[in-house]
Amino acid sequence: MSRLDRLPITRDDVPWLGAALAAGLLAVAIYLATNPYPAYGAGLYLRIADAIAAGGYAPPGQISGYTAEGVPFAYPPLQFYLLAVLLDLGAGPVALARFLPSLGVLAALVPVYLLARDYAGSRPAGAAAGVAVALNPQLLQWHVSAGGLVRAFAFCYALTAIYAGYHVFDGESWRAVAVGALAFGATVLTHPTYSLFVVVTYLLLWGTRDRSGAGLARGAAVGVGGAVVVSPWLGWVTSTHGIDVLAGAAGTHGGIGGGAATIGVSATLLPLLGAAYLLYARRNWFLAGWAAAAELLFAQPRFAFTVGSVVAGVAAVDVARRLPSLDGSVSLPGTGAVERREVAAAACLLLASVAGGGYLAHEMTLPSDPSTPEFLDEEDTEAMAWAAAETPPDATFVVLGDAAEWVPALADRTILIGPWGVEWYGPDAYETQLETFEALSQCDGVDCVEHELAGVGADPDYVYLPKGAYTVRGQPEVTFGSLDRSFAASPDWERAYENDGVVVYRAVE
């Protein structure tokens, strides 16, 4: 009987699953303690949710505020509707971006634990995989930060679909098919790249664990069930925007197959080494193929690290089972006899949590904060509140630095330059906006800014300049006042607003 035909979690799982969740809580606590504002950006996501709520929950055709034309709403909608409900209930957009992703991060640890546990037949293996996911800076970077409003939940849905898929092909469970179809549908309705991750994993599960016609039928049933779940949204998108909008976006953000460029230059080789060991020691073709696929097919290393976490848990247990010194049991006060392997696993998990938590605390408190840089601070929110109250509703802005994404969401004003949402217009439009935004954000004077604006025909009413430290696509930058001084000296601009971190100039008519 498949584990999905009964309760997948029992009392015996509690301490091991608890260890994984404790590591996740530690990571979340460190992030929240070191980030008074959300890391990275989610302004477009919240702008979309606000538009959904304002339109009575009908899907909006366009999202205003991002470039003069706005951008199409062709994103998978599930999380945006959840955000719209929360905004309607009174949640603040900045608070949502800071706190809600943590729930997705913690929820995702449950299917990670279950998958590694069932695959290795070992609860310590599940706990090890969960701890590895919880404390990986690369995974946290994209899931606990503001973008985790979508990505953290896509991660959870995808891993749930994959856990169900293991039982679809290993236990002939039709209940697993139902769970897999719902989870796969939720993944497709949340994020396309995570959906591809599920599809690739299912193909590997079928090819390495059950190549029978019945196995193919069960796997196809998951796909068909997922398609039924997503068909209303897909029908609306294609009828509203046409198929071209989906094809255009597919050529941006690295696409599938972009991982090959990273081989040999990143720590994602470590999962391949673990998979190579399992292939040699256990002829484990699935994990070897899964690690290779995650490395080669996805430009985003978070997928390779996710697979690597499961590989690490399974490999660690396999090595421990081969050590004669860990045979037998020991007596512990209040618990009776406990297997030495479980004691060793618990000790390793504790050490990993302490070491991983210490490393995260160190990295997240560095001045550059490579894992969770904040795009927004108190001065930015004050400046955007001023823009919302003191500028005309049709005013247009050009914003230097990553705070730009938040202006439409918090100030309800249009930014003329920025890549957010422009991927739906295709790679050329996206690259033009991205390159212009990056070049503008690194300008050191008014002449540079005006040159870049002229290159794309942008004529803003206001230019929003950071003072001191800021980020550009997450990378730290510093302005030492040259921007402010050059704009102040220009007859074409006048200072309209200033605080300790931001200065805004108005175009002189």
UniProtKB/TrEMBL annotation:
GO molecular function list: pentosyltransferase activity
Transmembrane segments: 14-34, 95-116, 149-169, 181-204, 216-236, 256-281
Gene Ontology biological process terms, A to Z: lipid biosynthetic process
Key words, A-Z: Cell membrane, Glycosyltransferase, Membrane, Transferase, Transmembrane, Transmembrane helix
A cellular-component GO term for this protein: plasma membrane
Compartment(s) where it occurs, according to its Swiss-Prot or TrEMBL record: Cell membrane
Membrane topology category: Multi-pass membrane protein
Protein name: Dolichyl-phosphate-mannose-protein mannosyltransferase
